[in-house]
Amino acid sequence: MKTNILTFLCFVFLCACQAPPVEEYAIIPQPQEISYTPGFFKMGNHPVISYSGDLNNEAGLLQKALSSDFSLSATVKDTGKGDINLVLDPAVLPDKPEGYQLEVSSGKVEIKAGTPAGILNGVQTLRQIIKEKDGKYMIQRASVSDYPAFSWRAFMLDEGRYFKGKDVVLKLLDEMSQLKMNTFHWHLTNDQGWRIEIKKYPKLTEIGAFRDSSEINHFGSDVYDGKRHGGFYTQEDIKEIVDYASKRHITIVPEVSMPGHASAAIASYPWLGTSGKQIKVPGKFGVHYEVLNVSDPKVLQFLDDVTNEVIALFPSPVFHIGGDEVKYDQWKASPAIRSYMAKKGLKTPAELQIYFTNEISNMLAVKGKRMMGWNEITGDKLHEYQSEEDTKEAEQQLAKGTIVHFWKGDPALIKKTIDKGYDVVNSYHEYTYVDYNYESIPLSKAYAFNPVPEGLSPEEQSRVLGLGCQMWGEFIPTVESMNRLTYPRIAAYAETGWSGSDKKDYNRFLKSLDYFKNKWAAEGIVIGPTE
After folding, report:
1. Quick one: which of 107, 148, 97 has its CA closest to 125?
2. What's the mean per-residue pLDDT of the chain?
3. 391 with 350: CB under 8 angstroms?
4. What's the domain range around 412?
5. Does residue 19 sit within a domain?
6. 101 with 122: CB under 8 angstroms?
7. Are 178 and 127 in contact (CB under 8 A)?
8. Over the stretch 226-278, which tens digit does the pLDDT of each residue have?
């Protein structure tokens, strides 16, 4: 009997000594480090947000999020202590400018970071860990230390094909911010449309922003909808959007396509084109033959003028020039181009493109901008319509300092590019093209993407700045079709960019995705499949 009593007392003692269970956070992107403590912080319906330093913007965004997410009426003050304290401290993760530390104790929440961007990233984590229980709001006690694996975490929206409008862009920026994505790559010009007001060249939007019809169904269908389509952003629109992004610590990188994908510009000003012919803004999708006449000083002056106006609107240190899918047929047929190549000692069209690209690089450098372009700008052969002769190893070398945006070709080209001294953003189309259907890129494949190819040394790996996911617009005419393809895959790319491959756990990711699935449903966003 005594033995039974002693055994029972030991059992009771051991149970008392065991720590109570904790509720682990479900967060996307997954933080780098989390340490849990038993217990909860209980938050009232009228929490006080306190902030130090220049954090009025971040405190306001938190106040707005608590209202929209939980119907909480928060008060913001810039002195004293609150229920949620935002603390700017340069000693916190000093080598991780977007990083933050979040501490949930029994009496308060504290988010500390060295920069306002880090504070906002902590705020976005906080939004996901507040739980409602019986009408009360609780947060599991824990310490979080978090920072991004990559400095470039981008979503690209192509509006050259279909204009979506300001409200759609602002909504995308909100979603990106909550997923801690920091770069909005805005594809503003293409063959089928020019979407940004340039005051010195008004025909770019008077003519270039509109087309008579659009190809439907698939590439090469030659079936058209017969509907006029168009639209563009005024410079005031752009300023508003850039300001909105800046408050969410998102950099907007503008892309103005050159020397190919320029039909809309050439339709507006025919003297820009190599053929010199008057064309219409095409409704057909795919790669067109029209290409800028890069031998004409007037064309370079046009590009100088255009980049001046675009740069005045976008504070981004990077300017994307496109540079992809240039068909060389018109250049090879042009006496003016052939004469120009001979004068400059250029043997192939690929060398001519590199020479032109370097001229644009110099133009941008004078304006304080770093050039970026799709990986055709290296001169490598990527397309069946390019001959070996046209793209044989070029003597011309791409300007140093260029960011090469990899999207197509053997991933071994990334190492080749890095070995030549260039930084790379990896947007390999087989994994990151969000306009591809879910049969081509299911959520699991999107999540599996690693922007750093195998076989790179640590030094070479440091040249991979990060990744981008691309929403190309050829056959995405509506916001609804865009949303279904974007969500939920954008969350997979966001986690890869922030958490890195070492933190990946697909089952954990799917569980954490429930928060966003519920959020998107409440917002009326119909998403694609999650399995």
Report:
1. 148
2. 95
3. yes
4. 150-501
5. no
6. yes
7. yes
8. 999 999 999 999 999 999 999 999 999 999 999 999 999 999 999 999 999 99
Q: 333-372, pLDDT tens digit by residue?
A: 999 999 999 999 999 999 999 999 999 999 999 999 999 9
Answering whether pTM is above 0.85, one says yes
Concerning whether 430 is annotated as a catalytic residue, the answer is no
pLDDT in tens, 435-477: 999 999 999 999 999 999 999 999 999 999 999 999 999 999 9
Best CA proximity match to 449, nearest among 473, 433, 471, 465: 433
Residue 3 lies in a domain: no
- Does 13 fall in a domain? no
Burial, 143: exposed, middle or buried (Cβ in 10 Å; 0-12, 13-18, 19+)? middle
CATH code at position 161: 3.20.20.80
Q: Measuring CA to CA, how many Å separate 476 from each of 114, 204, 442, 462? A: 40, 23, 18, 35
**Is residue 393's pLDDT more than 80?**
no
Among 87, 114, 144, give the residue marking a domain's end: 144
What is the rounded CA–CA span in Å between residue 31 and residue 98? 12
Same domain membership, residue 464 and residue 375: yes
Out of 58, 215, 325, 351, the active site residue is 325
Alpha-carbon Rg for the chain in angstroms? 26
The count of domains in the chain is 2
Which pairing describes strands 84-88 and 109-113: parallel, antiparallel, or unpaired?
parallel
